[in-house]
Write the structure tokens for this entry.
Amino acid sequence: MVDTVSFYNYLIKENLDFFTGVPDSLLKELCSCIKDKSDSKHNIIAANEGNAVGLAAGYYLSTGKLGVVYMQNSGEGNAVNPLLSLADPKVYSVPMLLVIGWRGEPGVHDEPQHIKQGEVTLKLLEAMDIEYRILSDEYGQDLEYLISLAKKENKPVALVIKKGTFSKYSPINKEKAVMGELLREEALDTILKEIGDDMVVSTTGKESREIFELREKYRQGHEHDFLTVGSMGHTSSIALGVSIGTKRNVWCLDGDGSFIMHMGGLAIAGQNAGDNFKYVINNNAAHESVGGQPTVSDKIDIKAILKACGFSSTYEAKTREEIRKAIGKMKNEGKCALILYTKQGSRDDLGRPTTTPIQNKESFMKEIKK
Ligand SMILES: Cc1ncc(C[n+]2csc(CCOP(=O)(O)OP(=O)(O)O)c2C)c(N)n1
């Protein structure tokens, strides 16, 4: 096991003092440590992993220092473009250290959305000519090698992090934004009761897991719900595509981290959605599913953004009663949006979908034809 604080101190000692990325459950301890020890200008939780590569490149341009970009391996895809067309030695040749959580490592049990990504994690780095090491207890030599290589050849290098690598870190700064009174699961319970037979496309992380469990609790089938277990940030685009091919109402149940990750999708939805597209964003101001690291959604005006994108009818709700009222109106009007404000938290015994993604897809497609 790698001592989290010592690892952070090692990076600082090597003059790697700028951190940016998207949080990951495998990097939870490291992300908490960085959040406590770095000031807000030196730890920027990015919209997506490509965004983080851009930030690290910019920091290098003004300081000549290597930035540290942390991400779950699912974010490799988002990072590929700026890694190859900005940081690569054949373009601007910008050094940085990528720290990549390895979900779906072959031989280690994980959820279906991580299997393929886990298989290709190292191959993707190899295809991009990014030299990597797998972080081990004896990381000194490896890190020294990678950092000096990055500096000498001006190119990105990577550390790949296996499950359980970092030691437990108890956060000092426990401050959390409190956006509402209900838990996400309580708000979802109310929504599912109100929307009845309508179709749902839900976002990555615990939101989809809670929807699955609520359907089980009420002994309902899962055929109304497309659970976007991977492809974080694309929920609104999937929902838009679904809504174009059906007359049924399609409720996109999104999260604020997901919304911010690919916010452009909402501009496209706002301009292209028909009357059956209903957008609901759960704003808990956090990446709650992977450890509660903050997003900026308590500081930006999501209502104004949605309105500007074309959702002229936008509701807000904090209580069960407000949710019921808003959904009641939304059901019978055109394209519209609801911003839910919930508090952070989830059940310790929250399960995971017991059906496969393909079963989910097939039952959803059968249902939507009815
Ligand atoms: C591209 C990508 N980056 C990171 C992750 C890891 N991840 C899974 S859920 C999640 C947080 C989602 O936050 P939000 O949409 O606000 O929903 P909440 O967890 O708060 O319900 C993250 C970062 C991922 N699945 N995909």
